[in-house]
Each structure stands twice: as structure tokens, then as C-alpha cells.
Amino acid sequence: MGARVEIAGCSLCMGNQARVPEKSNVFSTSTRNFDDRMGDGARVYLGSAELGALTAVLGRLPQPAEYFDLYREKIEPNKEKIYRYLQFDEMPDYR
Predict the structure, then answer these.
(1) Quick check: pTM over 0.85?
(2) Residue 72 scores a pLDDT above 70
(3) Are 65 and 72 spatial neighbours (Cβ–Cβ below 8 Å)?
(4) Statement to judge: residues 41 and 70 lie in one domain
(5) What is the span of the domain harbouring residue 94?
(6) Torsion of CA 46, 50, 51, 56, to 10 degrees
(7) Euclidean distance between the first and final Cα of the chain, in Å?
(8) In 29, 65, 72, 94, which residue has its Cα 20 to 30 A from 14's Cα atom?
């Protein structure tokens, strides 16, 4: 059991994600998954950034009721800070 956070990027296709040990269970916010992509016999579960955050907090995939409870507690109150369209042309730091 354990966790590893990888840098944001295109995962294995650009070489910025290590392969996991054989027959590992993996949660990933990657956009692709197919047999043995992340490791021999690895079972990879793809999900949203929200599910990734809650999985990291719990250390396991949440049950649906847990997900929605934690979403309402942790994410919903902060949605204005979390969900915003990044209009870089309007940000002084990116001009």
C-alpha cells in the first residue's frame, strides 16, 4: 500500500511516469488506459481530479456515498476557487 504523485503531463507516452509494480491497483487521472499500460497486470482505475483528491485523502477509492459526502464537505464550499476558466489573457502575471 502506498501512493506516489507524478508530475502533470502526458504520462507514459512522454516518459514522465514510472511503471508500477506487477499486479498493482492504481488510481489515475490520466486520459488513457489499456492493459499493462502502467505495469504488468496492473488494474488501473481512471477518474476525475475530484475523485483523485478524495482518493488521496482516504487512501482508497471511496464508496459512492462517501464520495458525495466528501464532495459536499470539501469541494462544494470551495467551488468558486476550484472551478474557474483560466483566461490567461486577463491575468496580469501571464501578459
Answers:
(1) no
(2) yes
(3) no
(4) no
(5) 61-95
(6) 110
(7) 44
(8) 94
Cα-atom radius of gyration of the chain, to the nearest Å?
16
**Three-state DSSP class for 26?**
strand
Q: Would you say residue 56 lies in a domain?
A: no
Q: Which helix (H) or strand (E) holds 15?
A: none
pLDDT tier, 63 (very low <50, low <70, confident <90, very high otherwise): very high
Same domain, 7 and 41: yes
Mean pLDDT of the chain: 80
User: Across residues 51-67, what is the average pLDDT?
Assistant: 89
Cα separation, 6 vs 18, in Å, equals: 8
Q: Which residue from 12, 11, 39, 15 is spatially nearest to 25, judged by alpha carbons?
A: 39
